Amino acid sequence: MYKVYGIIGYPVSHSLSPVMHNLAFRELGLKAVYGAFPVKPEDLSQAIRGVKALGISGLSVTIPHKVEVINLLDEIDEKAKEIGAVNTIINREGRLFGTNTDWIGALKAFEEVGVSPSGKRVVILGAGGASLAIIYAMVRACAKEIIVYNRTFEKAKEVAERFSVLAYPWEDVYDAYGDILINATSVGLKSFDSPVAKEVVSRFSVVMDSVYMPLETKLLAMAKEENKIAIDGLKMLLYQGVEQFKLWTGLMPPVDKMREAIYREVLTLYCHSVHHPTVTPTEGRGLPENPSTKKSQAWRLTLLPEKEIKPLRDFKRARLRVPSSKSLTQRALICSALAAGKSRIINPLLSEDPRLLLSALEATGVKASFSENNLIIEGVAGRPKLSGEKVYLGNNGTGTRFFIAYASLGQGSFVEVFGKERLHERPVAPLLSALRTLSANIECLEREGYLPLRIYEGKLKGGKVRLPGNVSSQFISALLLIGPYLSGGLTVEVEGELLSAGYVETTIEVMKHFGVDVERVSGVFRVKEGFYKETEYEVPADASSSSYFLSIPLILGKGEVYIENYSATSTQPDVALLTFLKEMGAKIEVLPLGVKVAFEGRPKACEFNISDCPDLFPTLCVLLACAQGKGIIRGAPHLRYKETDRIRAMATELKKLGVEVEELPDGIVVEGREDFKPARINTYDDHRIAMSFAILGLRSIGLIINNPACVEKSYPEFWEHLESVYAQNS
Ligand code: NAP
Known about the structure:
alpha/beta; Rossmann fold; UDP-n-acetylglucosamine1-carboxyvinyl-transferase, Chain; 4 domains; 6-stranded mixed beta sheet; 6-stranded parallel beta sheet; binds NADP nicotinamide-adenine-dinucleotide phosphate
């Protein structure tokens, strides 16, 4: 007979417990199922009676019932009594027995990262259910001192009395200090919220967040920036679930598979939950999975706070396929979303940014399905549906700009656009002003010219807009992409020299593939009224992602790299790397399929203008760090507004390695050297910084990359591919 388990709480629609428990039941071949039951506080006693009447075998208990449920059970064990909260119920022949496994979850989370709370000063924020279990865990682990801060001081005092620990009022939290900081409040569920400021975080060496959605809360992001050990809340969730499973079934569940399932779920669920609040998690739900990224889950899910790069002394050659182009994928998403009918995007890159854009498009009526490397997009025929959704775009600058223009064509009520804090700092004023000239109806919710913002139905019409050339080319691309759907078409006049012009070429290339021509006369772009046709589009390898591996022979001063799926004739601006590498002395061989870079000796320091290919900046910085003499990179003032101020970030991190650098308003001067000091590299949540320094780490000793998971943004398989370079040369 099937056994039924479940979770009660309110709300529970986003609980990850069904994902991990159902997977464990299936893997072990047990006839059991686990559901999510929303139970309002006033219905709790009725629900518990129902559990008995229906013979439900076991329950997880979550907010807000962990304390109240105690009075409704037949028995609770000593641990649950001491903690004062129950998170697990076992039905023993009609008698309901309560216990608590959250505390074991917390302890195991510390164990997993090799941190022992024993003898440490531990500060715990919050005095609710999670806090009770965590304090209990810290007491059991022999913490030297435990201090609880809570917004409602009375509750903090009650809890402190129960466990003989210290209670401080919330107002004093700015003075908190110690070894371990644990957030057990619910502050952090919004990606821009943190219970404490960075200054407080800086006074601890380990930071744990019990909030697990988003996976990297603001608190954990700050901890990583400060080079602290950051422990995410999913670890605690996993291990408390493992203990529950053992109690219900007497069996050890498949922990690694459960871990993989919940991390994957939270990475996709977080993107969806914001704008699909009614979706309940079920197996198989979520964004289409690109099979090419599946293999990389294993390392990703360990989410290491840092990664040490081993030097690669005996490099000879490496052969690789790199993921498809992110720029081209995002442009193809917009064209196919605006087209009528079904388009097929072959080999799209479904890393974080395109996934976020795809989710946003889905929230406006676009339908997407994925099979065998093909993304099938059913478009909205130029009329996105605005139905009051909130869309989250993470830190996806390009996607956000494209989406703002796209949604301005919409009909209905409105769509609200927001993202990570950094995205809210990236200006969109020139785009908004151009769209408003065309009668778009956009309201900035906090600060004029910045996200978050709302796009209402407007009466968008064609015409002429002017944009300065020294702002992001993404604004121009965004406008051109919607050009065919404006009555009378669109003329974009660029004043002054257009920076990153290459990316506009890429946009034009994709638009052409979807049947729309862009006419260009010096700085004027014209798009005629028309429409995108449903079509097939195959995305080539990403030139920016390829840049790291193509640089290896010059970084190491020897060997050759062959990238099989590289298109040297693509309009992707970062194909310019081939020219730059050649100037530095590399031998470039363009093959019918792919490209080969070979080098021997010490690279020449050169002067590079990257106004058309600014994404190459981090790669070129590390190349110049190994070159003979002083090299200069210029032409990219807007790099200061990327995921991070890339010029400042690269300069700061290169200096740690002993490299002499001088920041320029639009670039950098780098004096090359032969050897480097050991250093811990801060990656500022910037994928390109992580990947460029990882390649430099092949040459230097003791280089550690913080937050290696940030490569997820554009190149989820990066670490796996780097491993394959070692394997090919072992
Ligand atoms: P709870 O019993 O409702 O307690 C919430 C706590 O957060 C209280 O201390 C509350 O303070 C505090 N709080 C809420 N809003 C606040 C604000 N704006 N400023 C300062 N403090 C605020 O919830 P819980 O069960 O302890 O859960 C807390 C968090 O931990 C939730 O996000 C939950 O998902 C997470 N959790 C994670 C795991 C895991 O396995 N990772 C397990 C359990 C819980 P007051 O007392 O003043 O209201």
